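Predict the structure of NAD(P)H dehydrogenase (quinone).
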Amino acid sequence: MGRVTSIEQPVLPADQPSGGGPSSTRRGSHVVIVGGGPGGYEAALVARQLGSRVTLVEQQGLGGSAVLTDVVPSKTLIATAEWRAITESAAELGIDSDRAETEEFRVDLAQVNERVKRLAQAQSADIRVRMEREGVELVAGTGRLDGPSRVVATTADGERAFDADVVLVATGASPRILPTAVPDGERILTWTQLYDLAELPRRLIVVGSGVTGAEFAGAYNSLGVDVVLVSSRDRVLPGEDSDAAELIESVFRRRGMEVLSRSRAASVERHGDGVRVTLADGREVDGSHCLLAVGAVPNTRDLGLEGAGVELTESGHVAVDRVSRTTQSGVYAAGDVTGVLALASVAAMQGRIAMWHALGDAVAPFEVAQVAANIFTAPEIATVGVSEADITSGKVDGRVTTLPLARNPRAKMLGIREGFLKLFSRPSSGSVIGGVVVAPRASELIFPITLAVAHRLTVDQVAHALTIYPSLSGSIAEAARQLHETGDGIG
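Done. Here is the predicted structure for NAD(P)H dehydrogenase (quinone).
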């Protein structure tokens, strides 16, 4: 997945100890990590760097679901689909596109998925080699807490117990399953099961229009599949910038996707050699396959967390503070299991912060406001910092400027007509506090804005930095110039 709508970071009560920390744990300790995804393996690297003995328990494989079933596979599939989307501009650029519907552009999904899985396994193997080289003890199995300072791993050879000075829980999350829409791995699928398809679906019904649903719906639509996107909300991507979401929905419809807004799925069942989705209002939608993208649930079951004194939130996530501490001394948590932000980059940073804090190294608390996120639709949507909704609602005092991408000279050369850039700043100081980029490779273009937000650069500092001409990034400097405050207060 790309970006998943965030859950507010759990805040531990002020009068409740959040345990652990540099005063109680030092280098040379035994760190036991349950979960080998980005939160787990990045924490392991930091702990080894700081001189600790590290044991990492993981059942699925190094890299966890992020590498094996979620982020790496989905973005590899989307990268393939992107090549089909690029051909839209062929005629405008003077390239003969008469062959676009010929055999030259036939998609061999079996070959695509074979490459997807091969790259995921290769990435997992690379992580394993790194762990072994750094001296991390790897245990293949599932882990659970037996009290706050003991982890029991269930392996193929039985149980092994590890006493720990520091425990990190990084078990991630799994696709949410509805009782009226149970995946069968053949026609009714979660996003982890798509990569076993040998042929393109004849008609794919995607239930859920959040980040995961929008990304896969857009990718399969670009691959030439007839896609129906079922959205229970007024628009796709309801948690994102409204202008960005409206643009993506218009692109979906222009490319032939059927978007059913305000349509909640009541059930999904096998029907003949396909599937039937029954909506809450009684309408029925038939297709060959159905992808369920209705959110994720934290993997906290059977971990022994509550018995070890680790508090869970109402949503079932592990409650952590900004240095990844749980409510139990010596127990930390990182990644999707915490519900802070379902991003691999966030999981990795939470894991690093946990070890820096637990092992007495210098550490700064995690800053949600500095997190950049990207949705891998075509065009992509990248965001960082505060939102325009925060500003227009009065929650944040800020100024907004928006530039259409179509007026950028580089965009004209590339035949890019859809997309825009927004930049947000504080009126008093001129500091950059956020931004939105909707463009091809927005995931790359957001980085200068992220640097500005993280280092509290002003719009004038951004504007005075030279950009390449012509370049898409030139629009960032132009937006910053538009936010310049003159001496008389008129921008």
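The chain has three domains: 30-69+113-175+297-368, 188-294, 379-482.
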